[in-house]
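Me: Here is a favour to ask of a fellow structure person. Could you put it straight underneath, so I can go through it closely?

Assistant:
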Amino acid sequence: MIRKYNEKEIPALIEIWEHASTLAHPFLNNEFTQMVKKAMTEIYLPNSDTWVYKESEKIVGFISMIENEIGGLFVNPNYHSKGIGTALVNHINQFHKKLEVEVFNENKIGKPFYEKHGFKTFKTYIQEGKNQKVLRMKK
């Protein structure tokens, strides 16, 4: 089941993000990860259009939108390759026919996922301070 999240669920979303992000972004240091965690909790999640995917009354994934940009798409690693990410992208396609996303080039999970779903890179840049190549993709 996919539905809008409520603010009481932010801790559950942060837990999913931590597990999935650690797997997808092993190249990021702890200082950066903690900074992002704080920003997600205080800024990004409260100010985005976020949908959760529930299975057996448990949130197992979520997608956060800022207009037509996927600000975050994370699925509990125990539920990877079960179509949850695809279901979330398909759900938001109902509201946004053109989508954009940024993904680290080194992300061995996210980058292939977006490519599989028809996203194409149209811009790249190096993230300041992290020296990581970021791909801006659209569909």
